[in-house]
């Protein structure tokens, strides 16, 4: 299978300024040495609490933020060092759908203007060609052609998210980063939008990076899932291995918080599950060794002094936790 997006050892550090002179006194390691790849046509889910660095990672891949270090390849081309101007040709192929459609849509622009704007900026299509494309994509996302003339506030949250999706897809991208696109929606609407995104993926041959803060949202849409904690991937695996055999205590805790319906075919697990306690530590001052140790019920001496490496335990199933590796 072809790799479309290849991210290797990417870091994004933000300087922390302090003192009267506002000098740099440290760094917030929002993304700290992250590597993964996404195949063509695949969906990689990325899950983590707010503050885990998942949105920053998405913005770095799309070059909305410059990476501090590391390699990002898109279709075999290194894009991590491209200046804004040189990145423009790739921008059409790589789009993003944000969480809050109300905040990301300019309320003074009509739906037609909003959806056609990327074509205006990124292509040289004529007015008529833009209009035709807009009508085509509006209908594809389940709105009516006549809705073009309305304004965002005339739509429900779910419909507004469809407008954002249309805006992202109108340039025929190959790759779409979905940054919590359904988190702000009611549960019943979430399923509709997720199904739409899945249908569009098949229809248009899209590759997705799907960011979410809980494992239930990405379960149906993802092929593989990565779990992030304080800027690092702590576990990454094929969806089925991750949900049936979570190895990292943090992943286990996240799965425990998804309600299980106890039926005969699907009995709720009896054994004591790992509960997540406490808050995410300050990312500007993370714990030594394993950064999860302050919340991990299985933490032991080694966890405070040695940082666990992401290690492949089964084919394609990687975890970073000392429970699975020998002390060197
Ligand atoms: Fe818990 Fe230690 Fe594993 Fe970290 S390395 S997850 S603290 S057991
Ligand atoms: Mg976010």
TrEMBL record:
Transmembrane segments annotated in the record for this chain: none
Segments forming domain ABC transporter: 5-255
UniProt-listed SMART domains: AAA
Coiled-coil parts of chain: none
InterPro entries: AAA+_ATPase, ABC_transp_ATP-bind, ABC_transporter-like_ATP-bd, ABC_transporter-like_CS, Oligopep_ABC_C, P-loop_NTPase
CDD domains hit by this protein: ABC_NikE_OppD_transporters
GO molecular function: ATP binding; ATP hydrolysis activity
UniProt cross-references to Pfam families, sorted A to Z: ABC_tran, oligo_HPY
Keyword flag Nucleotide-binding: yes
Keywords, in A-Z order: ATP-binding, Nucleotide-binding, Transport
GO biological process: peptide transport; transmembrane transport
NCBIfam families: oligo_HPY, PRK11308.1
Family, as annotated: Belongs to the ABC transporter superfamily.
Name this protein carries in UniProt: Peptide ABC transporter substrate-binding protein
Naturally occurring in which organism (per UniProt): Virgibacillus profundi
